[in-house]
Amino acid sequence: MNNRIYVCHTFYHVLITFLKEFKLRAESAECECGDATLVLSLMSNDFGGLKNRIEKTGFFKEVIELDEKRETFFPELAEYKKDRGNLISNMIQRIRFTSKFAKLLEQFITIDFKKYKDIYVFCDTDPIGLYLNKHHIRYHAMEDGLDCLKTLDLARISNAGHFELKALFAKFNLIFIENGYSKYCIDMEINDRSVLKYDYKKYKVVPREPLYKRLTQDEKNILLAAFVENKAEIEQKSTELKEKKRTDNSVKAVLILSDPLCDLDTRKKIMQDLLDTYGKNPDGSQNVVFIKPHPRDLLDYKKEFPMCPQFSSSVPMEMLNYFEGLHFDTVISVYTELSAITFADEKIRLGHDFMDKYEPVEKHRHKI
Question: Each residue of 128-151: pLDDT tens digit?
Fold first, then answer.
């Protein structure tokens, strides 16, 4: 039997997997380089050359790409999602949907998960969570993003109305509910319990900050080799930024992190408004503004905002912590959590109040 397998849907998931493995292998003589398997689910992200770069590090036993499918891939499932007009009929249809979906996924889930001692699944909201439960395979869930339940508790949002009853059905594996409520989910790792509106007995606090702080230089070098394909370009941008600030000390260095919000036109307006607000000082002088697109943000920022230097969307923002001399006066995001960033003096997370101006309130202020 193999030891550990991690199912990742985003670059951030892969980063946290590395951090967990670094710590585990440093603390246990039984855990050696190459005894864990990394899975890249192709459902949500284009990982580009990440698989090849990770394989070159030799850090994992193998790196597997998984052709996971959303429910919309199977048109026959649509019938089970129709509103039948009452709770009982809808629950019967949901039970049927859960079984049918798990069966349809079998041809695409090509990994024998029963061969692994410990299975870690980031974002079991995705079909892999439903699949593992209907096949009676126990696993550990991991939060999708840093403190993501603070903003988007999908278990309760997606199951609003009679939640306790639905959670009971999930406990008996009749239906599936993510984030720890499913029968075969052992526990769910979260960063910080204090940010939760609803706690749950399966939540297990594993703070992320200590994982970053304990990194050795060798481990940082492995991360850079795995994640950054344009290291020289980032170093050049860092040098140019320092030179600009040296010649004009009134200039501030600003980094804006995009989020995959709204439609593309609205997203463009959001970025323009942020540039108008943070791109210049009260005296009218212009700041140097960098843009770091979110991996799932499809807006072409290079085309729309060619005056702004940009980092690759595939580089997790935390990687910027490890570039010597790269530093910003201010970093801004709408919803992305910024607590893991050490390369900025000021961190501004705008949140719901900001988004109220761009879309109907009910789209982001979920009632749960």
Answer: 999 999 999 999 999 998 888 988
